[in-house]
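Q: Could you fold this chain for me?
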Amino acid sequence: MNLSQTTNQQEPLELRSDFFYVYEYYITDSGDVFYVGKGATKRAWKDTRNAACEQIKKDYKWDVRIVQENLTEEAALAMEKGLILKYREEGDLLTNILPGGIKATDTEIVANLKYLLFLLEKKVINVSLSELANFFLMSSSTVWHIANEGHYREVEPTIPESINEIIKQFHSNAYNEDRTRAGNAKYVLSLLEKGVIRCSQAKIAEHYGMTPSNISSIKKGQTYNDVPPLIPDDIGIILEKFNPFYLSEEEKLKGRIAFIVRLRNEGIISITNTDIATLLSTTSYLVAEFTRTNEDRKYIYKEVRPTNEIMQKLIPYFVLKS
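A: Sure. Below is the predicted structure, expressed as structure tokens.
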């Protein structure tokens, strides 16, 4: 089985779970390698890596290349470490922060993690536990237990070899893409609360590529509580997109129905639901939703005055009073 032709848009059809492989991410136009990793099954095609790696994925067309497959884990770790060292000696700007060749539960990586947790506690760096989990290729639960329940007490913190790059990426005043996005979402939520914009939280989530539950957690302060509201670079687009004075065609239609139904209720015009539906090119069922006697089910929309053309067509329905 040759996996080297597989792209980032196409996963291999079969991958043996009992063997490992070494893979590279590279920019298709230049061939420059920007990340080296080892994995099993579909690791190369899933999950996120560090922020620098993910930024390159967004900015360039990239692909996945399998360097060698059917390796033991030890052989894959050794090859990964050797390739990272080779590329760095050749001057290639890899986004790997770890030196490679480390298992997720190795003492060395746990020791490095504990040192970063120490820096986090001292507010030297600013990073979430989930980011640390991605950073060290560990499960979020493992990192949480180490941080909060003292797992691996016997392991002493040690400074990672790549501490310079780590501090630069996660220093206390730094905001990576995820944290910036969370800060932007907080700012937009504040505009929503003030009535400056009009939309649902789901629409804000869609704008930022998040889930509604992500936005809900940010609003409640359950996540990114330490990130302040940050004015988005595209604030003008957001204000335009969620302009409270803008009415969709559906809102205009329902507003016109509400306007005409009110005139009828006040005895100013005499018109049936069917005629209203015909006049506005809609269904009698929709018009009926505005005339329900059950207040809980009746449609209530802000009135919109019909166009002059529609008002002209309404003239025959006006009640002449003597």
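A (continued): The longest helix spans residues 177-194.
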